Amino acid sequence: MDFENILEMDDRVFEYWIGFTKEKFNSILEEVPRINETRKGCLGLAALLMKMRTGDSDERIATLVQVPRRTLENSIDKIREILLQDFVPQNLGIYQLTREQLLEHKLTIPHGIFGNENNTNALVICDGTYIYINKSSNYMFQKQSYSLHKYRNLLKPFMIVACDGYIVDCFGPYKATTSDAEIMTNLFSEGSALRSYFRENDIFILDRGFRDSISFLEGCGYKPYMPESLIEGEHQLTTAQANRSRCVTICRWVVEAVNGHFKRDFKLFRQEYFHRSLPHMMQNFQIAAALLNRFGVRFVDNIYATEILEIIRQQMNLENNLANMVEAQNMNRRTSYFQSITADRNNILYFPILEMRDLILFALGTYQIRQARSYYGEHVRFHGGYRIEVCSEQFHSSEYDLRGSTNGTTLIRGRIKSRHVTRRQYYVYILLENNIPGRTGITEYCCSCLVGRRTVGCCAHVMTLVWYLGWARHQQHISAPAEFLDGVIVREDDEE
Question: What is the 3 state secondary structure string of 229-256?
């Protein structure tokens, strides 16, 4: 490979090592003319992008491009400084993004749930990410960088992201011991640039790590939202809590996806960071963020976004009457009420046949559907299938205001093993209205898991039964995911 004439390299080889096409590479050169004015600037840019792409050491890259290591490091340092001065400010930060431009970075579902009709409220998602580093002989730095949560040494960059994946700004790195709430409070302190940029009633989508900053943000006039926490002494969220939590998580996945793009496109942030490179870590992170903003693909609305939003509005204030009945009659402990059946193709006559579109609208997304296939694999590998039961006793649906007709209903119960705790299982209940096709035939459902009472979407355990009984068992072949891993670990006799 001739790195002296890098633009003459084969296109596929170029993109493999640099991570960008020649057109995008030339675009950077055109937008930052100082690179070409620097001696071997084109090679220096390629080396910097190659380092971020591969995560290789300077010595290995220097050998590959056939220049001395010290020369390569000096060239990378010069190009990094030029990018920070000329490229990053044009593609990252609140100073290059007007409020009107921020309002354009929107999706239907987040703004339909939390925004106003006039589209005057900005909506952003905040989160910190982790970059793992080695242990240090600098004891003060070692204590500051060791996370008791992850049991590893790490540093925390912090990002503010629009709901279509555009990175508004990133900050840090912060100590491993600094919570997201502390970071948020410091960034929005009185007189700060962010405090001036965001206005009253702007919306912040957060996770539970920000709970100690919620009152502060509300005091600033903002509207923060985060998933609900359990009330002390309870084992399950209420229906209203679970629904509000689902409204947050259906929007918050964007920041997790953006974090994933950093680790996917730039291996430098995926592996343990070299100590020698730590002084430049945040600068490289800002360059990566600017590159993602400049060349990355923005998230777009799901093709079912309008329908999903309408379903959320319809079901947001519904009570989970089936969960109330299950709790009142203590059904989890009753065995005589139910008869076991096998989940084959012919014995559950009343369960409606569903299309993939029905599953997406039932779950209000695809995450639970992906989880359902993994739960399916867990059960068929070592247990042969699901344990599914049909209620054989008459129950008074009108007494608990169960939705659907008073006659011609079937109550199904399933037991789904937890994916986290081996000895834990969850009880799933699904109420069907007989001979009603499609997802409308499923009138109510609940689960004994943390969020099992939600009526906005469903948990992964409910979806596991719905996915299998309504869709998967009617397919020609359904395989468990990652089957090649089944024989890797030596298993004890009782596990087999």
Answer: CCCCCCCCCCHHHHHHHHHHHHHHHHHH
The answer to whether 261 touches 292, Cβ cutoff 8 Å, is: yes
DSSP structural state of residue 448: S
In the three-class reduction of DSSP (H, G, I as helix; E, B as strand; rest coil), residue 434 is classed as coil
pLDDT in tens, 284-311: 999 999 999 999 889 999 999 999 999 9
pLDDT score at 38: 86
Report the first-to-last Cα separation within the chain, whole angstroms: 51
Cβ atoms of 198 and 170 within 8 Å: the answer is no
Q: What is the pLDDT of residues 441-471, one digit of tens each?
A: 899 999 999 999 999 999 999 999 999 888 9
Say which amino acid occupies 275.
H
Rounded distance between C-alpha atoms, residue 346 and residue 323, angstroms: 28
Q: How many residues does the chain have?
A: 496
Nearest to residue 445, comparing CAs of 309, 342, 351? 351
Q: Which residues pair with 20 in a beta bridge?
A: none
Model pTM score: 0.89
Q: How many CA atoms lie within 13 A of 208 on its CB side?
A: 5
Residue 137 and residue 129: Cα distance in Å, rounded?
A: 24
